Task: inverse folding
């Protein structure tokens, strides 16, 4: 399997939907499991009638279908789909048969014909072809700006965050084509980009910022392959919004309406916190006011030993967002630390920043 093409496909299709029509339960299970890792949404149908109904209901971006099926065969379903949407993107996956030969002689603008047993690389390449779209005028301008930098052999600034720590170095575009380009960067920036799977480029001459997605990293030569550039509004986080990941010692008590909820802290700033709750039913709503008890360790030095001081800080907050997080619930809240404890939290944030920088340096030295 071509891993680079797979990564590129995942970038292109993360917000796309696909309808897979196949009457074999075994093939549905096997291929849908693969497709589910690539597309934002997968719809499944087991015959032509079912496939046509689901196409009408969900209007998927791409249709992948077999031809030999009960109730309505694949050829009839494809003709009906094209009558609904002449621009529908359809890929045929079929064993060699008369229907396949017939379909290849009809001008229905089929994206590709794949034979069973399935060749996974051919599927990926055909899905790549189906997933491409015409770039917008803004995207074209974005690529032209980058191509100009490439021709001038000018430097670009790359901006990333590694566990909340800003990482900014210059890089050079060394190869450029229509939809992707390769940049030479310092090793430490490579680690940060691999962590975020994207980066933000600053065009120094115009003060414009471009966000790009990562396709591939060549760690040996410190090269990254990037795609899908788009202009964004970008500004560095100020002190109060500087986000760090908490360590294992960090504990949180969330109190609401005389009830305490067991939560774990994911990350924290001076004015906000992201928490994870294992409870299935959270009796919290956006806008609810909450009380927080934060318990963490501050490293204190004396002349003989390094000591960890367990510190407790109290804060009031308000729920900003509640959303699913794997099998748990993510709670994002604003936070107002008691004035007497603000300097203590600042020490913890600075401590985590130093620890993260040290971790990053160790990774860069490997």
Result:
């Amino acid at each position: 399997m071509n891993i680079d093409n797979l990564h590129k496909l995942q970038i292109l299709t993360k917000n796309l939907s696909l309808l897979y029509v196949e009457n074999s339960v075994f093939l549905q299970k096997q291929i849908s499991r693969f497709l589910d890792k690539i597309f934002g949404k997968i719809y499944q149908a087991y015959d032509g009638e079912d496939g046509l109904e689901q196409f009408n209901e969900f209007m998927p971006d791409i249709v992948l279908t077999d031809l030999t099926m009960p109730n309505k065969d694949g050829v009839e379903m494809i003709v009906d789909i094209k009558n609904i949407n002449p621009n529908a993107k359809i890929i045929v996956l079929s064993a060699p048969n008369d229907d396949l030969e017939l379909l290849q002689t009809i001008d229905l603008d089929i994206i590709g014909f794949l034979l069973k047993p399935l060749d996974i690389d051919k599927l990926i390449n055909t899905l790549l072809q189906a997933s491409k779209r015409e770039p917008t005028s803004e995207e074209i301008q974005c690529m032209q700006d980058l191509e100009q930098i490439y021709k001038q052999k000018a430097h670009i600034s790359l901006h990333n965050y590694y566990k909340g720590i800003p990482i900014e170095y210059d890089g050079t575009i060394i190869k450029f084509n229509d939809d992707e380009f390769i940049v030479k960067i310092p090793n430490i920036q490579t680690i940060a980009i691999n962590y975020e799977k994207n980066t933000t480029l600053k065009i120094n001459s115009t003060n414009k910022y471009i966000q790009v997605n990562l396709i591939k990293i060549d760690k040996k030569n410190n090269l990254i392959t990037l795609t899908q550039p788009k202009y964004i509004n970008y500004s560095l986080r100020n002190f109060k919004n500087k986000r760090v990941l908490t360590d294992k010692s960090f504990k949180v008590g969330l109190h609401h309406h005389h009830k305490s909820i067991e939560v774990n802290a994911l990350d924290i700033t001076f004015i906000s916190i992201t928490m994870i709750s294992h409870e299935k039913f959270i009796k919290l709503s956006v806008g609810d006011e909450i009380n927080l008890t934060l318990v963490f360790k501050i490293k204190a030095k004396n002349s003989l030993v390094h000591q960890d001081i367990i510190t407790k800080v109290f804060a009031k907050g308000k729920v900003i967002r509640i959303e699913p997080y794997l099998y748990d619930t993510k709670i994002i809240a604003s936070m107002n630390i008691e004035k007497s404890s603000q300097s203590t939290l600042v020490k913890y944030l600075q401590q985590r920043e130093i620890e993260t920088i040290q971790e990053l340096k160790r990774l860069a030295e490997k």
